Amino acid sequence: MTTDHAAPELAERAARLRVAVIGGGVAGLVAAEAIAAIGAHATVFESADAAGGAVRRGEADGLSFDAGAESFAVRGGHVRALVEDLGLGGLVVEPEPGGAWVAGIPGGAAPLPKGGLLGIPANPFAEDVRRVIGWNGTWRAWLDRLRPPLTIGHDRSLGRLVRKRMGDRVLERLVAPVSTGVYSAHPDDIDLDVAAPTLNAALTRAGSLSGAVTELTGGSERAPGAAVQGLSGGMTALVDGLVARIELLGSEVRTASPVEALDRDGDAWIVRVDSGRSLSEDAAGDRGETRSPAEDVSSQPARSTTDAPTRFDGVLLAADEATARRLLAPHVPALDAVAAGSSPRIEIVTLVLDAPALDAAPRGSGVLTVPGSHIAKALTHSTAKWAWLRSAAGSRHVVRVSFGSQGEDPATAGLDDDAAATLALAEASALLGVDLQPSQMRGSHRARFVQAQPSAVLGAAERRAAAAAAIAAVPGVGATGAWLSGTGLAQVVPHAKAEAERLRHALLWR
Ligand SMILES: Cc1cc2nc3c(=O)[nH]c(=O)nc-3n(C[C@H](O)[C@H](O)[C@H](O)COP(=O)(O)OP(=O)(O)OC[C@H]3O[C@@H](n4cnc5c(N)ncnc54)[C@H](O)[C@@H]3O)c2cc1C
């Protein structure tokens, strides 16, 4: 315990601490803020020309929007607490109530049924469920009510459990679109203990899967933990707020600073930044994004890296898994024994359209697809989902089309920007059920991402725990980011804070 007597000495020690944070996505920024908050000095090295990582701004036809993450889960309250702490509480907005649709079913598309959990219906006879799975699917799903629940052992695979109890139609038309949309993975690969930890026990209590879903959702139309919020003006306000806070605390964020290597000299860490490479080329390459300089609306200008302090007392890796493993390899050899997670490549093409036929939001806030039915994986009708964007867009519509998922590269991967926009327009037309012509497209933006392996994929939890243990065993080093916390800001934010607190404590008391 810290005594009053020890406090000044501790504060002095903290003021002398220098910590390098590698990666300026939300994880790195949250970690840097937690280090700076005790008076230590954090230097964030970010390879791109703007901080934020998967939370990034896009621009087309003079309109700014979220090109990556567009919301945060309310679950746990961590992101909301951070938003409030940064003084951004006034920007919090709810999505419009339109709800999503599912496409790739006979008849084209239908609203995603209300209620349910991970797409599993509470009542297979509900009209909105029947509309998607048909009478055959409904009768098959009803068998779930007759079968005794498995009481010895339980299914860890979401897909296996649903197929066994409710059949293929529920699995493919309801559960798979949701799991592909939320986790970028097929339900067969989803670990129930992570995605819905209480479901197996509820199934044993209730005697059926639909009964378990009813018990867990309490009959509510919204699944527990499914609520999301956004920020008026876009999620990048969170990034700007974090960067401003870090700088206010006397620490710094160095953009356009790709870390090439990490060396050790006794207790000190030496961060080697490749300042020789073209900053703008690096930035675009690392972010996997194509955009012209005129389109670049990043809020943090690129800075010189020549005066970067290179010796640090500790280092916190907050980059993607492949980069973190490469930089840590000489220092954490035990990581070699931990299998790397597969990281789906995702592309988002955002279209700004003149399309009065979309004024009525024909597919609510967007569309999830039955796997294999369309080239695109999902579509968000952003101006139907977010009122702030609708106001900014005036009569225009913003639609974002997602490509790629676990085990399947995005169909846009080999295309140039024009061809990718043309494909996105064709997919949008099919998914929205509205004829959209190239002449209606006022602008487009394309962003590429390598997503961390979703935390709910089978085996991911064990791999993450093993990787974290290997890293924690090496003094002076920490690691965070979606590959260790699980994807999604609701998981990334608390993990980054906890890991920064662990590292700063270890450095202060060594
Ligand atoms: C398209 C998309 C949409 C999403 N939508 C949502 C959503 O709506 N809600 C939600 O909660 N979550 C969403 N997510 C997930 C969420 O955005 C991520 O889990 C989270 O932002 C990851 O943060 P991170 O800091 O761990 O990683 P990243 O954001 O990937 O940041 C890692 C950073 O490290 C940098 N870096 C890499 N190598 C180096 C190097 N050598 N030197 C220096 N820097 C380096 C990268 O440039 C990057 O900025 C979405 C993700 C994607 C891809």
UniProtKB/TrEMBL annotation:
Source organism superkingdom: Bacteria
Chain residue ranges for the region called Disordered: 280-310
Matching SUPFAM superfamilies: FAD-linked reductases, C-terminal domain, FAD/NAD(P)-binding domain
Domain annotation Amine oxidase: ranges: 26-487
Start-end of Basic and acidic residues biased regions: 284-294
Biased composition (Polar residues): 297-308
Protein name listed in UniProt: FAD-dependent oxidoreductase
Species whose genome carries this gene: Microbacterium capsulatum
